[in-house]
Structures are given as C-alpha cells and as structure tokens.
Amino acid sequence: xxxxxxxxxxxxxxxxxxxxxxxxxxxxxxxxxxxxxxxxxxxxxxxxxxxxxxxxxxxxxxxxxxxxxxxxxxxxxxxxxxxxxxxxxxxxxxxxxxxxxxxxxxxxxxxxxxxxxxxxxxxxxxxxxxxxxxxxxxxxxxxxxxxxxxxxxxxxxxxxxxxxxxxxxxxxxxxxxxxxxxxxxxxxxxxxxxxxxxxxxxxxxxxxxxxxxxxxxxxxxxxxxxxxxxxxxxxxxxxxxxxxxxxxxxxxxxxxxxxxxxxxxxxxxxxxxxxxxxxxxxxxxxxxxxxxxxxxxxxxxxxxxxxxxxxxxxxxxxxxxxxxxxxxxxxxxxxxxxxxxxxxxxxxxxxxxxxxxxxxxxxxxxxxxxxxxxxxxxxxxxxxxxxxxxxxxxxxxxxxxxxxxxxxxxxxxxxxxxxxxxxxxxxxxxxxxxxxxxxxxxxxxxxxxxxxxxxxxxxx
Length: 460
What we know:
It catalyses: alpha-D-xylose = alpha-D-xylulofuranose. The protein is of the alpha/beta class. It is built from 16 helices and 12 strands. An 8-stranded parallel β-barrel has the order 3-4-5-6-8-10-11-12, surrounded by 4 helices. Strands 1-2 form a two-stranded antiparallel ribbon.
C-alpha cells in the first residue's frame, strides 16, 4: 500500500499547496517509477504486464512503434465535473486558482508524472498550461513564462512535446467559431492566438501542431452561410501553413475530425470529410489528420475506420488513443482497454511503417468516480498495456500473412486482364460492355465476413 493519502471526492476544501512550491517537492509520494512485471498478480495494476519499451517487434522497439503521450488538459486540468455534477477530483498541489503559481505547480507535477510513468511525450492546449490574461498581450506573456519552465523541465527529464494546439473553443468570443466565425475580428483574434501557438511549438521542439475545431460548424442552417464559413476557414488554414514555413517550424500540421459536440454539426465531420475539404481548397500538402477513435464512433463508424481511411490516403499523422461508450451518444474520452480495437489500430500503424512524428496520445480522462492519485497511473498503464498487446497481435497477423493473403486474393481479378485495365483507367464503358456480353453473368464469391472475424479471434 502506498504511503500517500489521496484526496477524496468529499474533500473540496482549499488544499495547503505551499509544500509543493519547494524545488525538491514530490507530487506523487509513495508511487515509484512504473516497472515491467509480466508475472504480477491480477490485482496489481501499478505495473506494466505487456508494455516492454525496449522489446523489438518487427524491427523496432515498442517505444518506437507506440510513441505514447500524456495529454495535459484531462490529466492535469480535469476536475471530474459534468453537466449534472460538481468537481470530484481535487489534487493536493492544485489550489483551484488560475494563478501563474498554480500553473507552475501543475506543470512540475505533470513532469514528475511523465517520468514515473516512463512516457516520452506530452501534449497541451495553450490555455491548459498558462492562464488567459485580460488581453492577448498578457496571455502571451503568461505563455512565455510558463513555456520557459516547460523547456527547462523538458531538458531535465528528456520528455518531449508531441504536439501543441490552441484552445479556440472555450472562451465566449469563440461561441460562433474561430476560423469560421461570421465576425472577421474574431477570426483575426484566433489567427493571432495560433501565431503565438506556432511560435511556442517551435520554441519547445513540438513534433506536430494540431487544430481541433469544436466550434467550427453550426447549430442551425437558418443563420449560416456554409460556403462563406468554410472558405474563410480554409483561408485561416492557409495563413497558418504560411506562417509555419515563415518561422521555420518543421512539424506537420494536423486537423482532428469530429462530427458534433459542442456544435450540432462540425465541418470536420470525419476523416473523408476533412480529406475532401483539404483537397478542395488545395491544402492536402500542408495538413494531415489527427484521429480520435471516440470521434470516429460518434460519426457512426467502427473504432478504427478513420485511422484506416486516413492511412489509405497517406493522411494519417497522429492518433488520440481513447475510446467512448458505443451505447452513449457523446464524447466520453475513456481510456482504451479493448485489445481487439488496439490490434486493428496497430495493424494500420505497422502497415504504414509507423506513426512518427505523430504518436498515440491519451486524450482520456479518468472517470469522475476515480478519485485517487493512483488512478491517474492505473488508467494510463492499462491503456499502454492494451496497445502493447495490440501491437504484438497485429505483428503476428502480418508476419503470419494468412489474413493479408486472403484479402489480396479477394481482389486478384484486378491484377491482370480486364481488372488491371480498369485499375489503370485503360478501358471504357464500351469495351467493358463488349467484354461482359462475351463472358456472360459474373461468378459471385462469398465475402466470408464471419470467416475473417473468426480468424481475428484466433489471434486474440
């Protein structure tokens, strides 16, 4: 049993945070660096049982394939509050204020967490790590001061910034969107905020930069000019790409699809919607996608759909590795614990030879009832073990080659003859009509869905 006393959900009094201001303060006392123990008891959830960072799978280490990342917003700003209940998560170092001192304590706590967990990457929104000021200039000053500390902690620990992003959805100015806002002044404010965000990303060596447009959409078409909004949003993205190049930031720019929530309809509905948008506006060479499976299932697709789809078109940049509850109709941001889902994701990652410079970012939050500090670790450990299992199973599927071979055989009619001519657009309707008139009724083959499902189960 650990020696620390986790803050309970009933303790809503303001904590005494003074001891956490000391340079040598320990935020997670009693929790050691998480180790690998494949023989650990079932009820020991504070060790890795599958994730072996240095184990080589298909020519790379697990650490290189998985590139795990902790998100700052849920892990260190989440309170457990929901539309029906007040906060339940009270961290002993967090006095609940929006002060710079509190922001620095959170950041130091985060880097201790990353180090003990053994994760090499983290992600944040600008307003997660630094409080918003009364003016843009004050906000920028706060961000400069906090990211100075972040840079110091990165150098000290070796933890890197997988990606940065800007919060263009929480403040009331953005209630009608940022890049798609009907008010040009608000779009200009968002542009200034992203300008600073890109500068901070370069300063911290971020490997990517993400855009999530939670307010880029509509609630009613009665007051909405869709083409104007989407054209302005494309202009916003073009300016971001131009500024990225101007300052010499080399990380990919990524757009994260989501069909709804908080908007009734978001313009970046799913992977193919975003790919179509990028191609229509000539942005496909400047942007790729950051896929969150919980968003994918909200769009009515299976868990891995958007990952497979964006990868097929060479547009998969990174993954926000979470899950939702399929029986619910909203974004629950749960930790992914389903090995079959993880297998399908990692099969795609292996097939495209990795997700770098992206990664698997845990855009997840502990449940509001999971109030112990240990739960922060347990949730990440469980998810990391799940993806480690998924990686090994996916590697077995691909190295065995049974399923890939049978999929290839299913499309073998396109390897030669008329199929090859169709694939290469070297035929016509007239020629195909003549061909089928001579050949007669085609032979129909079974899709054998249950056979493929059974084969997958045999690997699990």
